[in-house]
Design brief:
- The protein contains four helices and four strands.
- The protein is an alpha+beta fold and 185 residues long.
- Among the domains are: 55 residues; 60 residues, no CATH class.
- It has a four-stranded antiparallel β-sheet with strand order 2-3-1-4, with helices on one face.
- The longest helix is centred in the middle third of the chain and has 28 residues.
- It is rod-shaped and about 85 Å long.
Length: 185
Amino acid sequence: MTEVYDNAAYGVMARFETAERLVMAARTLHADGVAQLEAYTPYPIEGLAEFVGPARASRGVAIASFVSAAVAGIATYGMQWYSATFAYPFVVGGKPLDGWPAFMPATLAMVLLFAVLGAWLGMAALNRFPKPYHPAFNVAEFATASSDGFFLIVSHPEDRQEDDDGELEKRLRDLGAVQLDEVPA
């Protein structure tokens, strides 16, 4: 590991030989109170997601979907109602000007369309997409993350001390890390 204590460093990257060691390390660090963990593996690993990544409200996508669907439904119905009753009132077959059954197909279509659009945008926003660059790309060993590497990145807190890096390095080695690299910011 590079012994450079730069406050602009993103964190420490640890490589593990097996998925089981990675999950064990993530579980142990999470239990120790380390909040900023990121894992990169060539395939999904069962049980890893509960220990890594920032905690986000799971209702965010549902809220975004509901709000966008409600706004679209109200706007579509309101636009049809206004145009049929005030802007262009035209009586057809003695039916009332504000006949709501005629407004439902377009309203329902817009509600469904915007519910899906809101869910997609909510998911992208909560997952912080798009993110075309990550500081881990600066570490040459990270190129194997999609083929045969099991990596755990521990992000540095803002108020870290130089002694914290030595303790973190020792802790990661004890948990089975075979290689440690400093991730520059």
